From TrEMBL:
This is LolToxI. Keywords: Signal. Residues 1-20 form the signal peptide. It comes from the Eukaryota.
Length: 68
């Protein structure tokens, strides 16, 4: 039982070490439309709010309510 537990611990440690190491694949840092808008309760002093949101008087993105 002890040897199985030790092997299991080594497998878990190996998986954690591999997943924590930086990947050799290049990261995509291109700016998409989703990255340039502010979400609900986001600060909209610089960037505009996302679709269906509006910038309130307190410079916070809020849900755009439609009545009727």
């Amino acid at each position: 039982m002890n040897s199985k537990f030790i092997v299991l611990c080594f497998i878990i440690i190996a998986i954690v070490a591999i997943s924590a190491s930086p990947s050799s694949l290049p990261e995509d840092h291109s700016i998409s439309k989703r990255d340039t808008c502010r979400y609900l309760f986001g600060n909209c002093t610089v960037d505009k709010c996302c679709k269906y949101l509006y910038c309130s008087t307190y410079k916070t993105c809020l849900w755009h309510w439609h009545s009727g």
